[in-house]
Structures are given as structure tokens and as C-alpha cells.
């Protein structure tokens, strides 16, 4: 006789179906499963448990009521349900797994090199790529906010799938359209041609934008002193390395004609004054002899006597030597007229500038006042390099992250000990006075400078701001200037999030750029145009002359259609300090509020530049 558990073992007598057994069909099936080792349940019951149950059935049939097996029957029904729906369950889990895999693939495909190789902050790099006298590893970048960059990448991927457009392509406040240009209205002259006090010469230093401000300040001073202005000269600088003069950059005849009712302008001095040694007669006035942002009284008290005595004054340098307060209304208006109307770029700059813009986008609408002012008639005559459709919108980004700005800031930018040594060496060579001054003061730690908002934004920080504002990954970005400290490796975080990033060197052919080679101010004029007429202009440093002048043009001619993004660096530094804990939803919400605050419609504040903030009664007119 075989063992009881053997398939050949006869069924125990007490478990054979019997009317007197008191077991219903469900109970019998349960006992059969115990003896026949049902795959779904029998494997879970031990031999001891089965024997115990059988004895219980034999000794006391009254115990085996329906309630005793209610759970067993319920379990059997669940097993049957599971068997019937097995395919549906498997399909559901397979579908969930597919979506998880798809999300993972999209994230990794976004930029695998960037997402996998972001090094920890303050990593040191071996020198491979030279830029600004410093070398980075071409495959690495000194990343300071790796966690936020990862979250930004995920956010941009999701936004691409949603095809959602950010609201920052348009002005946040419709009141901007109420202000209109009106500085070109005719003014009454303070004097007459017959009452000239003498001639004013100006030799302006700096780059394109500093020289532009100097020219307009000189126009105002000439009017104040009732003098004749000689077409300004531009000083050659070892920093800018540009021998360009006035007529190389601006339309000299247009400048003279637009201002002819306000001041007298001549191309050069009369012959009897050309041979005079101006320094020996006391007519050479340097920046050290005039206070920065001087008042009209200072010119009347100190400069007018020289002019009346010698009939000539030569301002050498003339950087920011006229203030914005205590100036008569007609002189403020004259400054605006000079900047926004009289200084038109030379035809070759307008032509190449219009070509540059058309390479980025296709003009499908009527030209605006801003485009007419900066590009003249060339915008409608230049044929694009390629015939296929180009993006209709683009964002211009001015990254003020050149080596001089980085070194002068005294901030730390995550490049390690090699970067620190290089920047210190640059300061010793180019900013010795800065180092001498710092020796006499209490040093401020780099992290404290950053908290105070004194550090220029890095390409990485600029990318995070744009991502926080919701600009999608396909946004076309024009980068003004191309000498970013650290070069391509420093640009890696920005280009990884926004691959459609171009410069004038990318958009123009070598032959088109050739007339501008070795003329940095003329190249800067091309950047000025591309930034000014862009659909959105993003500033990273409010102290930049180019950013200030471009934003002023967009305010003056914008008609409420040219938004400018201006981060408040102190607030942004506080947000970025939470890199290790902040959630992306909180980050982008705070960044948006910061930018909206900077876009509020305000009239010019006391002491602020009229070139940057022309929204005032002396420069613009408000229409209700």
C-alpha cells in the first residue's frame, strides 16, 4: 500500500463523498486540494497541517460547518478572478513600465554628455582650452548648481512635450505702450549763431557705448555753454584695439542735420586754432579735472571762463562727466534727441546688421519704429543666406562674463585653485590700483560678494533663469559678444539646455565679417542692433553700458512690444543659495516674480541714466 500523499494512494474513507458526512461541495473540493497537492494552494500547506485537518473531520463533523470554510471559498473565488484577469494585469504593468522607460530615455537623450558628466562644484581642471588667458578641460565645466541644472533639464523636456509657450515673450504690463517717443520735437535755442563762445573738442575714451554717451553729453555741454561742437574724436585704446572714428560708425551728415536747430556742429577746427598748444594755454581738460557726473554749474563756473578766454576747450576722455540731475529740461531732451535720433549707424553697419537679424528670423510683419531707426531701408532689401523658413522669434542674451569683469568682481566662479591663481595674476597686470585699494580695506569674502549681488552672472546661472522663466529648449538665442571667460567649456551648461545658441560669427560668413575685423567697436555695433531688435532681450549685468543703452532703445521705441528681462542679482543669489534643497516649482515661481518686478512700468528714478530710463517728460510723452 502506497503512502497517503502518493498519487496512487486511495482516498481516505472519511473523505469520500457521503450524504452523512456533513460536508458540502466546497468543503470537499478543499479537502481534495489538500490530498491532491493543488499547485495553487497545496504547496503552501505542510503534511502536518493536512493530517491535522483530516483528523478534525473524522472526530467531529459538527465542527465543519459552512462558516468554517467561508474564507477558503472566498480565497478560491479570488484565485479564479486573478486567473481570469491575468492578461489585463500583465498589460497594465507592462504599459506603466513602458512609460517609465520612455521618460528615462527622454531625460538621457536630452543631453547625455551633460547629464552624465556634470562634475561636482569647484572642480579643478587640466588645461586644454584657452580663452581669456585661462584654460579649461574641453569636456568639463565648473558647474556650481548641478542639482538645479538636472531639474531644469527635466522641466524643459516636459515643456517640449506640452508645447507650452512662456508668457515672457510679451511685455508683462500693457501700460508700457502708453509712452511714445517725442524727444525730436523742435526746441528753442539758448543763444544764437552770432554769440558763439568758442569751440569744444571731445576725445572720447572707452568702447562703442561709452563713446556714444560721451558724444551726447558733449552735445548737451556745447548747448549749455553756447559753443560750437567739433565732430568728436575717438581715442585708441589698448583694451579695445579699434582705430575707428566717428564716420566709421555713425552717419556724420545725419548727425549734423538732425541737431542743426539745436547746436552748431563743424567737421574740424578753423585753421587758426589747429596749431595751438592747448595744454600750454590751459585749454586741455582731463577727466581728473572734472567731477564724475558734474552739474551744469561746474561747467559754467570752471569751463566757461577757459572757453571765453581761449575760444577753445578740449575734453580728453570725457567719460560720464555730466550728471542727470539739476539739468534744464531742454538739455535733457537734447541728450535724448542725440542718442535716440541723431546717432544712426553707418550704412555698412546697418546693412550687415539687417543681414544678421534676417539670418535668425524671417520678417513676416511690417517694420517697427525701432527697426527703422537702427536699420533704415536695409531691412527690406537684404536677401537671407538660406531660403528655408527661419524662426520668427529670438531672444538676445548679453552675457557680461569677459575676463576683465570676472577678475574685477573678486568673486569665485567654481573653477578651483587654477582659476583663482589666473584671475589674481590678471588683476596684478590690469588692475593694480584695485589691489592697492583692497589692501587698505577689510576684505569681503567671495561668498558674501555673491550674496550682495555683486557677481556677474555665469552662463550657467543665465541658463537657469531662462529655464525658470519657461523658455523652451528650442528657443533661438543670440549671444552678444563671444569672448566668454572659460570659452566653450564654461558655456557647456547653457548650450546643453539651449542648443540653438548663435553668435554673429556663426551667422555671418568670413567674407561678410572681413570688413569689421580688427574693429571691435563696429563689431559691437552689430551686437547692439541684434540685441535691440530682438523679441526679448535678457540682461545679466545692469552695470553694462551696452545693456543699458539697448534697454533704453527698446523702452523708447518699443511701443510695448519689446520686453527686457533684468534679474535682480541680490534676489537671484538668495534663490540660488538654496540649490541643494529648493524644489523646481518654487525656483521657477520665485524667478518669475523677480523678473516681473523688474518689468514694472516706472518713470526715471532720481539720478538714473536718461539713456537707460528714457520714460520721463523730458524724453517721452505719455498718451492716455
Description:
By secondary structure, the chain is an alpha/beta fold. 46% of the residues lie in helices and 8% in strands. It has 26 helices and 15 strands. Strands 4, 5, 6, 7, 8 and 9 form a six-stranded parallel β-sheet that branches. Strands 12-11-10-13-14 form a five-stranded parallel β-sheet. A two-stranded antiparallel sheet has the order 1-2. Helix 20 links the parallel strand 11 (477-480) and strand 12 (501-502). Helix 19 (459-468) runs parallel beside helix 20 and helix 23 (520-532) runs parallel beside helix 24 (545-557). The radius of gyration is 38 Å and the shape is elongated. Mean pLDDT is 82; it is low at 1-73 and 107-130.
Write the layout of secondary structure elements.
Layout: H1 25-36, H2 47-59, H3 70-84, H4 86-110, H5 112-117, E1 129-131, E2 134-136, H6 146-162, E3 179-181, E4 199-204, H7 208-224, E5 228-230, E6 233-234, H8 246-249, H9 252-258, E7 264-266, H10 271-274, E8 284-286, H11 296-310, E9 312-317, H12 329-342, H13 347-360, H14 369-375, E10 395-398, H15 403-409, H16 416-430, H17 432-439, H18 446-451, H19 459-468, E11 477-480, H20 487-497, E12 501-502, H21 504-507, H22 510-513, H23 520-532, E13 536-539, H24 545-557, E14 564-565, H25 569-576, H26 584-598, E15 620-622
Helix pairs in contact: 6-19, 7-12, 13-23, 15-16, 19-20, 23-24, 25-26
Amino acid at each position: 500500500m502506497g503512502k497517503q500523499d502518493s498519487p496512487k494512494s486511495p482516498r481516505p474513507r472519511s473523505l469520500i463523498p457521503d450524504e452523512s458526512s456533513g460536508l458540502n461541495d466546497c468543503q470537499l473540493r478543499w479537502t481534495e486540494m489538500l490530498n491532491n497537492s493543488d499547485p495553487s494552494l497545496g504547496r503552501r500547506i505542510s503534511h502536518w497541517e493536512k493530517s491535522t485537518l483530516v483528523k478534525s473531520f473524522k472526530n467531529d463533523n459538527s465542527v465543519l460547518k459552512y462558516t468554517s470554510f467561508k474564507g477558503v471559498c472566498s480565497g478560491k473565488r479570488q484565485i479564479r478572478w486573478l486567473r481570469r484577469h491575468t492578461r489585463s494585469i500583465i498589460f497594465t504593468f507592462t504599459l506603466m513600465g513602458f512609460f517609465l522607460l520612455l521618460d528615462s530615455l527622454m531625460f538621457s537623450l536630452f543631453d547625455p554628455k551633460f547629464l552624465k558628466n556634470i562634475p561636482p562644484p569647484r572642480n579643478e581642471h587640466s588645461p586644454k582650452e584657452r580663452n581669456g588667458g585661462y584654460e579649461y578641460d574641453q569636456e568639463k565645466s565648473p558647474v556650481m548648481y548641478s542639482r538645479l541644472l538636472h531639474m531644469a533639464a527635466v522641466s524643459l523636456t516636459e515643456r517640449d512635450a506640452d508645447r507650452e509657450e512662456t508668457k515672457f515673450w510679451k511685455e508683462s504690463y500693457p501700460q508700457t505702450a502708453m509712452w511714445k517717443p517725442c524727444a525730436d520735437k523742435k526746441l528753442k535755442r539758448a543763444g544764437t549763431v552770432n554769440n558763439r563762445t568758442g569751440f569744444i573738442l571731445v576725445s572720447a575714451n572707452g568702447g562703442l557705448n561709452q563713446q556714444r554717451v560721451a558724444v551726447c553729453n558733449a552735445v548737451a555741454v556745447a548747448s549749455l555753454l553756447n559753443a560750437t561742437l567739433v565732430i568728436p574724436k575717438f581715442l585708441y585704446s589698448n583694451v579695445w584695439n579699434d582705430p575707428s572714428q566717428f564716420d566709421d560708425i555713425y552717419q556724420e551728415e545725419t548727425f549734423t542735420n538732425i541737431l542743426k536747430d539745436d547746436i552748431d556742429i563743424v567737421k574740424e577746427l578753423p585753421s587758426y586754432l589747429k596749431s595751438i598748444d592747448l595744454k600750454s594755454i590751459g585749454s586741455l581738460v582731463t577727466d581728473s579735472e572734472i567731477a564724475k557726473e558734474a552739474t551744469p554749474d561746474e561747467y559754467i563756473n570752471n569751463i566757461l571762463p577757459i572757453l571765453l578766454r581761449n575760444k577753445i576747450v578740449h575734453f580728453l576722455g570725457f567719460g560720464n562727466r555730466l550728471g542727470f540731475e539739476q539739468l534744464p529740461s531742454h538739455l535733457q531732451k537734447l541728450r535724448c534727441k542725440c542718442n535716440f535720433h541723431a546717432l544712426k549707424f553707418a550704412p555698412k553697419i546697418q546693412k550687415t546688421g539687417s543681414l544678421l537679424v534676417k539670418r535668425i528670423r524671417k520678417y513676416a510683419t511690417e517694420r517697427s519704429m525701432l527697426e527703422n531707426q537702427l536699420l533704415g531701408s536695409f531691412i527690406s532689401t537684404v536677401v537671407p543666406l538660406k531660403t528655408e523658413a527661419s524662426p520668427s522669434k529670438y531672444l538676445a542674451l548679453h552675457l557680461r562674463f569677459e575676463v576683465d569683469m570676472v577678475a574685477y568682481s573678486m568673486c569665485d566662479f567654481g573653477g578651483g585653485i587654477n582659476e583663482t591663481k589666473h584671475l589674481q595674476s590678471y588683476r596684478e597686470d590690469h588692475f593694480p590700483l584695485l589691489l592697492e585699494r583692497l589692501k587698505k580695506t577689510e576684505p569681503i569674502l567671495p561668498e558674501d560678494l555673491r550674496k550682495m549681488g555683486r557677481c556677474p552672472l555665469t552662463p550657467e546661472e543665465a541658463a537657469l533663469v531662462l529655464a525658470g522663466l519657461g523658455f523652451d529648449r528650442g528657443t533661438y538665442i543670440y549671444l552678444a559678444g563671444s569672448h566668454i571667460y572659460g570659452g566653450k567649456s564654461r558655456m557647456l551648461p547653457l548650450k546643453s539646455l539651449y542648443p540653438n545658441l548663435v553668435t554673429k560669427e556663426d551667422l555671418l560668413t568670413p567674407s561678410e565679417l572681413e570688413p569689421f575685423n580688427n574693429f571691435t567697436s563696429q563689431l559691437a555695433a552689430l551686437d547692439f542692433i541684434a540685441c535691440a531688435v530682438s523679441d526679448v532681450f535678457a540682461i545679466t549685468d545692469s552695470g553694462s553700458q551696452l545693456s543699458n543703452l539697448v534697454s533704453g532703445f527698446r523702452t523708447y521705441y518699443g511701443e510695448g512690444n519689446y520686453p527686457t528681462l533684468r534679474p535682480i542679482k541680490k534676489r537671484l543669489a538668495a534663490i540660488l543659495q538654496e540649490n541643494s534643497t529648493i524644489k523646481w516649482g518654487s525656483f521657477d515661481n520665485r524667478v518669475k516674480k523677480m523678473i516681473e518686478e523688474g518689468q514694472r512700468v516706472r518713470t526715471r528714478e532720481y539720478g538714473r541714466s536718461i539713456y537707460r530710463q528714457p520714460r520721463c517728460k523730458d524724453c517721452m510723452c505719455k498718451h492716455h
